[in-house]
Amino acid sequence: MPKLVLVRHGQSFWNLQNRFTGWVDVPLTEKGKEEAFKAGELLKDIRFNVAYTSALTRAQETLRIILEVIGLQIPVIKDQALNERHYGALQGLNKDRARQKYGAEIVHLWRRSYDIAPPEGESLKDTAARTIPFLERAILGDIYEGNDVLVVAHGNSLRSIIMYLEKLTPEEIIKVELDTGVPIVYEMDKEGNVLNKEIRRH
């Protein structure tokens, strides 16, 4: 049975500084690189055929480290459809400062609602509108062919994929939190249905 593995990138500098990152291209911290290394160690039993990542450095670097640890050289497809949710006017802003500026309730709504977007930014629903067509067209295309697929992307682009795969409601997905560098391994059938899910941690 083909496997689809999702990994949120390792810790970035702006994760560390508690800032909204979105589409800003922020590199990994040393801890982020270590998380990527550990993810690679946890995935050594899977011989991936292809990998997908976003157009952002933190995801690409995490993927590079994972493949290096596993010892694989495979095709890597980069697409901004897998980019993090665009946080608009919040990008670069410390989350505590954002609460002071806009109010804690509205910031919580922007972060945790399904369809309310921050100023000039995307909601999770908007993110899913670009992520899911790419998932159906490209990523699941590989699953249908029986390939093992690795996707290294971002908290919100991966949440939209998880919502689709696990058939979650908007209310259910907003409660889902993804840790950096922790692989989620789905066993799939060739029709794209989830047969089993495993979260791998050290």
Q: What's the mean pLDDT score?
A: 97
What's the Cα radius of gyration?
A: 16 Å
Main beta sheet: 6 strands, mixed
Q: What is the β-strand count?
A: 6
The CA-CA distance between the termini, in Å, is 24 Å
Percent of residues in helices comes to 40-55%
Given as residue ranges, the uncertain stretches (5+ residues, pLDDT < 50) are none
As a percent range, the share of strand residues is 5-15%
Q: Examine the secondary-structure arrangement and name the CATH architecture.
A: 3-Layer(aba) Sandwich
User: Which fold name fills CATH's third level, the topology?
Assistant: Rossmann fold
Number of helices: 8
Q: What is the oligomer described by this structure?
A: single chain
CATH class: Alpha Beta
Class derived from helix and strand content: alpha/beta
Name given to the CATH homologous superfamily: Phosphoglycerate mutase-like
Helix-strand pattern? EHHEHEHHHEHHEE
Shape: globular
How many domains make up the 3D coordinates? 1
Within the largest sheet, what's the order of strands?
3-2-4-1-5-6
